[in-house]
## 1
Amino acid sequence: MVIQTEGLIRCLEENIGQVVLGKSEVVRLCVVALLAGEHVLLEDVPGVGKTLIGKALARSVSGEFRRIQFTPDLLPADITGSSIFDAKRQDFVFTRGPIFANVVLADEINRTTPRTQSALLEAMSEGQVSADGQTYPLPRPFMVIATQNPLEFEGTYPLPESQLDRFLLRVSVGYPAREHEREVLTTHRSGEPVDRLQPVLSSEQVVALQQAVREVAVDESINDYLLDVVQATRQSEEIHVGVSTRGALALYRAAQAQAIVEGRNYVVPDDVKRLAVPVLAHRVITKGHLYGGQRAAVESLLARLVEEVPTPG
């Protein structure tokens, strides 16, 4: 199982890497989120390729892809759908919104109001949408790839803690290296290379990979190590709100997915250690900051706490 799984994952990463240059670690984290059956938040300044990464991942997997451009006037019904009166049937018919897709790119998610942002909560956590007393299941696989600009940029709204908690990972894209940026200049002369990407995984294969992640073995010593990391955030004098149980489960699931990506059917301590910051940093609130403090400071604090936790032999 592991060899076949590893081949599929390498194929996916290489396909995305054709257009996302020099960002192998960012691509790998997005693949980890996909295999864990969860969602990813890409955060950085405009123009560094956040949307490109989302589109490349979506086009590499067969299935329905929708892009939602989040703007200040976007309404919740514009995401989930609404009931419209059908004159022929003399009844209201629910028209499904763009959230009903396998991969949804929520572009610049923090440019819309918190009320509209909250329309994603049920979809991301339960895989369903409730409207007019009815529940509508979302397709499988289902993944939200959201992008957001830094909070200090004009026209942005902070994501509520409950919304942030729905993202398995928060990833900073960063500027490309000079040699990769030079390659971008030449490859984009004749159009967008991402538009020419072809799917390399079917929806059924993605679901099978997600099931394989659930079967990855996690030793009791790894569980204890993971809980020690979580407990360190709750006991730190510099953190006001530590990691919740949902956050602990997110780290557990991410570590399983990381093991599959690395070609193993068991989790090792390094899986937990490598993923602790991108999985947990957006789930803690430091003292003196209403919105978790500046990102770099929070991530640095969390990395230091993780280093202080003894790893199992």
## 2
Amino acid sequence: MAKKYLEKNVLDAAIERLEIIFQNFDNIYFSVSGGKDSSVMVQLANKVAQKLNKKFDVLFIDLEAQYKYTIKHINELKQLSHIRDFYHIALPIALRNAVSVLQPKWICWEEESRHLWVQDMPEDSINIENCPFSWFKKGEEFEEFIIQFAIWYQKKYQGKVACGVGIRTDESLNRFRTIAFQNKKVTFERYNWTTKLKSNEKHFEVYNFYPIYDWTVEDIWAAVSKLNFKFNYIYELMYKNGLSIHEQRLCQPYGDDQRNGLNQFKALEYDTWSKVLNRVNRSQFWKYLL
């Protein structure tokens, strides 16, 4: 593993951060995407939870237009030994659609578009038919859902809450700023790798924490190898398709890098690609350009 500050390697540092969180918070959930970073984070958290005899929850927001291998990997993560509740969200959430001027947003899991869904509704999901969130409205923005879920979660369990987020600051300057500038944010006990979420709710005390913020992509794959972690096999296919470990990304296919995203779907999961092309207004335009 790569060496970082004060000769402490990043794996030991991440374990130390997770231990601090588990020792100071009774209610913890980790936000996962099925990507390599959040996958390593939650599997490492499971090892720490096992050592400390703790439980944690997981939040996964299923954006519908996913690789089949991503869903397969999510199902692997659901088997981690110290998960209390796994919130598999399959609700009609509004997402960016950069492939259309006429439809700048699309709504995943929209009932009216069931015949176009990229995948079937997961049987164990929280969906519009069994939704426990009284505050949820169809077409809610992704970012708003994240905050509302945190508020709901804290009210359910009471007390202060910690949410683990698997971001690495070497991927963008904005991510580095989120972590580095402690004087511009409220932290938990002055740990710069934590950030208190903002809300107008009374007694709201939820902290995001970033246990692998100082890792590199090489560190991620070193951890997978060294600790024998499960991983999303779509990365193996990306590598075989010519993408270096620094170029590999999981993202919803209609974002601002949509051409690269659709190209990737075409090369890696052709049957999924055909569904993705027809899922939103004007996305099929790209098949003439790819």
## 3
Amino acid sequence: MPKQPITHSVKDLPLVAVELGSHSVRAMAAQKVGEDLLRILAYEESNQFPCVNRGMVDQVNDAGFMINHILHLLANRLNVDTIPSAYTLIGGKGMTLAAVRSKRDLVRKRAMTEQIKNEMKKECADKIELKNPDVAVFDLLPSYYVLDDKEQDAEPTDSQKASVWEIHFNAFVGHREAREKLHVSFENAKTTIEQTFVRPDVVLSAITTGHPDMLAQGCAVIDLGAQTTTLTVYKSNQFLHNLVVPQGGWHISRFIEQQGIPFNYAEHIKCTYGKASPRFVEHDSAMVLPSTHPDQTTQRISLTSLAEFIEMKEGEILQPILNVLHTFEGRLGGVYLTGGASLLSGLPEWLQERTSLPVQYGSHAYLLDRQTDDEFCNPRYTSLVGALIHGSDWRDKHTNMVVPDRKSFASRVLRATQQEIIYIFSDSKKPDNE
């Protein structure tokens, strides 16, 4: 008798989020210890292979290997045999917002069920994807509801009944290839994607959860990563704008490198001594560094010159974002910075000089309990913490879900057998990477 594949109930698994970044694959595990409160249990990061380019998976085989490797390291830290599933994020270049709605006439007054909501959501996603074959809907988030011609922002309760229901969604839309490559990467890693979240929504939630006034007044979040910089504008339950600039902190380091400095030195001096503008350099001095020029072994660069290079490139990266922010002046409560590249000294002040909106760092620290190391309050972890909070909420609604242990022997045999059966009765050729 064949051995039954091993399955795990999600309620017994640690919360795990995996993020595929431009320079590394990162994984974080946490435990929910209260309402919107996490304790970080473990964290791992690896940059063995460059497998992501500007927010999109570039090499699925390398990405699969990296995911498998990083989750193995995380499992060792947690002292568990395997991590069969994880949450992940999607975003990157080409992602835009679209408004879409679905309407249902239920004939008689009745409460909205979860099944009908999901059907309406799927209808909207299908509508977009059928019209645009190269496009995928990454997620659909309700913006407001209409019950018998009466609008409301809040999600309807079980006691609210209507005969005509209408749901208006914010659709995050991107390249179909981005979604497919993400799923293939996890498939190659023999890991189940428990749920995928769009990065702008996750980052916004991590910064604003528990602060409804920020959402009511409206805010803009600038998420500065290594190879992408994302602007999200939100107000009164609606995403008003989403812009992805395919450049980030890595491109600033590359610009410094072009001045004749090896990249690893360029990255180090940017993070350690760099300023957003020469105006923020208090005491100028010069550094002697190795040179990439063939006719010289060393190169001198002053702190003022370094700041000039940084300001030149950051101005190029952030100008499209500033152009959008100008259209929302007077309509938002403020601008919040997050992401690993946001820690450049003087950046909030530099932005403040160019917009009438208040600029400050967004923080997810209030989502972490006191036993969590302060290191995880750093903005570079905001997206992972946000994914874990979203995952915790999602799991609360799906307590009966189980996931297979696809790395167990029985599951591998079953999966391989199923694949062979499919190939026998299909004209499709077996992929080379299987």
## 4
Amino acid sequence: MYYVFDMDGVLVRSASVTIHAAQLILEEYGITAEPSEFAPFIGAGEARFIGGVAEAHGLTYEPVMKEKLNNKYAEIVGDELPPYPSGKKVLEKLREQGVKFALASSADMVKIKANLGAAGIPLDWFSAIASGEDAERKKPAPDIFLAAAKRLGADPKDCLVVEDAINGIEAARSAGMKVVTITSYFDRETLKKHQPDAVIDDLMELLEVEIK
């Protein structure tokens, strides 16, 4: 079994930082956004994350908004990223066991590097990395997971995706992969409605999950 990890909400608990950065950028456009407004766009990439909320307030999305979001995120992540040791510990355990794993994040590489750097997770631990720049269609489309599997040299049916978002569950299913979800942002009952293979509350539980 190959593991394919989402990043935000799985290896790092970054939702609060991303939301704060997006709120700060939208304030520049005269928009005051509540954290709950971003929920439908979690896992869909930065453009949709900030653009979806902007459009809900009647503002047309412009690519510069994503650039501003990434820059603001990189500026504040070092101070605001909540500690979450489970991400690094689980990857260390899998490495010890000789398990190959990939990273498949809708985020651009600039954000991936900022997050993993803040969490102390080396990029070269991953056998493959697929970022938002590698998939024209974002989650819930399966493209990013299929790109990660190809780079791993793995059949999609032999891959287990680790996700926290509804968009991610749907993307994994569309890719023909198994999926475990973690209750980082969405509660257990909400996640179960989308029929993942398992739901966990802490990433360390992944090491005990058995998926047929």
